[in-house]
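Subject: sequence -> structure tokens, single chain

Hey, anyone have a minute? Need the predicted structure for the following. Not urgent.
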Amino acid sequence: MSGWTAADLPSFAGRTVIVTGANSGLGEVTARELARVGAKVILACRNTGKGDAAAAGMTGDVEVRKLDLQDLASVRAFADGVDAVDVLVNNAGIMAVPFALTADGFESQIGTNHLGHFALTNLLLPKITDRVVTVSSGLHLIGYISLTDLNWKSRPYFAWPAYGQSKLANLLFTSELQRRLAAAGSPLKAHAAHPGYSETNLQGNTGNPVGTKLINFVTPLVGTDADFGARQTLYAASQDLPGDSFIGPRFAMRGPSGPTFRSPLAHDAKKAAALWDLSEQLTDTKFAL
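Reply:
Had a minute. Here:
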């Protein structure tokens, strides 16, 4: 069955897109393809050296800027340097890593995958003209949001449940952002996407030798390439969709791109609102429209 691909992207001429974590993997492909169709693309990267190397392989108008989502001071500095943007792609992420804290004392996965992007979105919101796309994961299905211990301070830390929590947070954030945009009468849209299971450098950093070996064995067998994974993000970034769309492969890890399912917990509007309030407190940022 044929389906939508990056070859079907419309022109982005005259439009500016920010892609976080654009120095490798899904983010690099997303940035490359949007630049190819005429967008001015800002590669927002923690490691600007890797960002420069990625940009060198792209055609079009690309620029590398420093952004460390594990440091809210860096997030604020980056946002201050942006004049206007049409599409924000919250792509950067870490997966199933050993316990660590960000510069602001957040558990690193919730800090990077959710709180950093939450702050970035709120700070940029008055400058965005079209949409926010946040990359979640099918593994949000194993996630549970603990509003009393979001940063794993009082419960035993487990890398995969922590990852699942952060990816579920991405979906609840998207839903609550869209609710707030609609309530404010804003034409902006909030979408989420998941790549299926893409073979990128995201895997294999669990810090657990057994877990790492298992992932390294399984990934080549079931994983798809980064072009396929990024296709879901590009679809969400370019197509005319209702707000709060969640885009992914039809058959979880393969198939044509389009709206996909989310867990019952990802439909919890009260939890989404409560997570938003907690995230505002933790990041000292607010919905700015």
